[in-house]
Here is the input.
Amino acid sequence: MSHVVGRFAPTPSGRMHLGNVFAALIAWLSVRSQGGSLVLRMEDLDTQRTSSDFAQILRDDLLWLGLHWDEETAPQSQRTAVYDRYFEKLMDEGLLYPCYCTRSQLHSVNAPHLSDGTYVYPGTCRNLKNPPADRRPAWRVIVPDREWQLTDLVQGDYSLNLATGCGDMVVRRADGVYVYQLAVTVDDGEAGVTEVVRGMDLLSSAPRQMYLQETLGFHHPVYGHVPMLLAPDGRRLSKRDKDLDLGVLRQRLKPEELIGTLAFAAGLIDAHIPISAAELASVFDWQKLRGDAIYLDSASL
Ligand code: GLU
Here is the structure.
């Protein structure tokens, strides 16, 4: 079997919450159980919301959990020149066009939405004759009318036609900042990532990234989108749930207790017992991982 390279790509915009811990844990378990290596990357494209202090706390939290990485690649905020090169490649292939649509145009009630509320860009600026001279444009990549299919390690078969389910995608914003989809594709591709494990909320990003991988000359990784952790009322746990962020949980629990609770709730172990990440790696099996949402509250911890 070829060498597995996994990654954990947190956004250092606050303390990790349980959902982030869970995704990091599964990414780590999968890699370790296959004798592979793990890359850590700080996704700090949004420099307003992220900081190097949060990045440092994040590293410390991962080590406390026993989830070590083999290499940390440069944070996204330092890789603009690299993204420029791939942007030029898309430009040379005639796949980019400037888009002057304003936020309010894009979000107006008349804008096309799918039944689930997803906005589909209708290609308004694709053949623009008279672009406004007084504004910097965003740049969009033309997407093909074709189905992108994957077999997710947790969610099974999934497919999306980007033309009908998404529309031409922004790759660089009007303020010059590259968007997540492009940066992730380039970073995962250049780091030789073969396995992407992350939260279920990013499943529909996989076909977007597969398209960019193909266009930019990278291999497709294997994907595993792990279930979301929900509060008992069905709300997604987020950085706003302060009682479930690691700052609070580290004061109450040992790492083995936290990992044991997550592993039990996810179906990885049969009893609610403390267990270390290293012990769990020796019994980890993708088949046991539940695919549906996992309900947790502070009382179960
Ligand atoms: N940076 C994203 C997050 O923290 C994860 C992106 C990814 O794993 O592709 O939610």
Notes: Residues 9-11, 43, 184, 198, 202 surround glutamic acid (CB under 6 Å). The chain has a mean pLDDT of 94.
